[in-house]
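Friendly challenge for the regulars: who can give me the structure tokens for this chain first? No prize, just bragging rights.
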Amino acid sequence: MSAVLPTYARTDLVFEQGEGVYLTTTSGETFLDFGAGIAVTALGHAHPALVAALTEQAGKLWHTSNLYRVAGQERLAEKLIAATFADKAFFANSGAEAVECAIKMARKYHSHNGAPERYRLITFDNAFHGRTLATIAAGGQPKLLDGFGPAVDGFDTLPLGDLEAVEGAIGEETAGILIEPLLGEGGVQAVPWQFLRDLRALCDVNGILLLLDEIQTGMGRTGKLFAHEWADMAPDIMAVAKGLGGGFPVGACLATDAAAAGMTAGSHGSTFGGNPLAMAVANAVVDTILAPGFLEHVEAMALLFRQKLARLKDEHGDVIEEVRGEGLMLGLKTRPPNQDVVAALIEERMLTVPAGDNVVRLLPPLIVTDAEIDDACDRISAACRRLGERQPAAE
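First reply, four minutes later:
Bragging rights claimed.
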């Protein structure tokens, strides 16, 4: 471990095998995985369709670069376009790369249309868009910017939900607005659907673009293929990743023809982006999620889980302050430090993910069953009892 750059506060667990919603360590302990690799393993571990797709492709071809057509890219792009607002897709390797593409595309759109001065994006407090220099500037969080020199210019960060502030911030240099439909790292904070509709209207009136970061909320996580569908609106550009690859590194930037018009040959690229291995897996993921009944299953499990968590909040109000989120992207705002709750759940052999605002994220694979939700709630209850016993007695 000493040879690995120490940029992660890692838990001392090493997993060697997974199946469905369970992971097994090198020492043989089995854990219930309700973190899903931070909303990545949307179809669980070792899903047969993904294993088959990757194995078959691995025996054929791994890499050619984007100097040539990649058949898997064309198939995947057609599927995503048929299922969304988009007309074009660019494939990358990660969410941060997808957001970088979205930022460049928004700037290029205005330059292409004779307004190169329009390069600034309005973003929101507590957002998380990635770890590159541009995406940490877009997020605007001091803890992520500290020590990396002057922040990349071009981002105006505003309070989430303040439409008046957004209206006042739109100026001659504004290219667009970038927002997560539901903040993930920021504490599973809901963005009112009406606010998204209002942002769409503002963009239309002012001739600017609406960019959505659906890296964590997309690919069925909220019960729709993409979360913005709940608001009955659509962006001009959208960043996608995490669940798109089901565990294989892949990201995508989706856009309308109009928004993408300036992105011509040489304006953007990626050596590995959209390679045959990634495309084989992502095609299998999309086929599975779009199969009849899949998203209905997510909605049903989400409702069940939300109801059971509400009961746990009533029973363990000394630990759970609030249940928040949408679909199977849920959060527990806790009274003890969220890291203590995450640690207590690890003692119950359950994996979760901490977030901002003292929240514990619950991000089970979308294939989770009602029995597995019962299992999770039993473990959460046990962890809450243990934590309650550790709390100092009220005076």
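The domain at 49-289 is CATH 3.40.640.10 (Aspartate Aminotransferase; domain 2). The chain is about 40% helix and 20% strand. Your move, everyone else.
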